[in-house]
Amino acid sequence: xxxxxxxxxxxxxxxxxxxxxxxxxxxxxxxxxxxxxxxxxxxxxxxxxxxxxxxxxxxxxxxxxxxxxxxxxxxxxxxxxxxxxxxxxxxxxxxxxxxxxxxxxxxxxxxxxxxxxxxxxxxxxxxxxxxxxxxxxxxxxxxxxxxxxxxxxxxxxxxxxxxxxxxxxxxxxxxxxxxxxxxxxxxxxxxxxxxxxxxxxxxxxxxxxxxxxxxxxxxxxxxxxxxx
Length: 228
Description:
The chain is an alpha/beta fold and 228 residues long. It has one domain (22-221): Rossmann fold, CATH 3.40.50.1820. It has helices at residues 3-6, 11-18, 58-63, 66-69, 96-111, 128-137, 159-164, 181-193, 214-226; strands at 28-31, 34-37, 47-51, 74-78, 82-83, 89-90, 122-126, 147-151, 169-174, 198-202. Helix 7 (159-164) links the parallel strand 8 (147-151) and strand 9 (169-174). The longest helix is centred in the middle third of the chain and has 16 residues, at 96-111.
């Protein structure tokens, strides 16, 4: 792994990533309104929730994350409810938090005792899904998401509301060709200057889309989110 990819994770974590297993994603479960990839690791495991983008597809988006996420976590991918003319689905303006929680409850019911909620969940949002993720964690009440990762979205974040919701670590990400790159980088710097635990991760020379190179950066992102 190149030094630039180690970034803010640190030498010890990077060494672990270098020898990590290349195991494929866990068992896939297709449930009403949600796609679930079961963790490959033994014992009860936490949940990572991923919200796809505009006119997206939950299974396709989660396909970019499943191999890495399921090494230590169940991956829960709620499906949005508004159909797009050209295919795919988008998130409505309202009711997203309730719909996502209902999807997670269905997934948890299917996973049973394999779920561990002791450390809370990780919430990942891509593009429109990032905006909806912000809506969930800035709603003004405590959530179950101490770890949040937002990809490719020009978001405005409120430190006080994030802290009130229980968010402990926030990672903003974008490719250098994505128009969201510089605004997200500035937002992470602003939050960090205000004393909030936030970072920005440059995803390399890519635009507003997932490419095969994304897999290089995901271990670093997840390791930082899970660190103390």
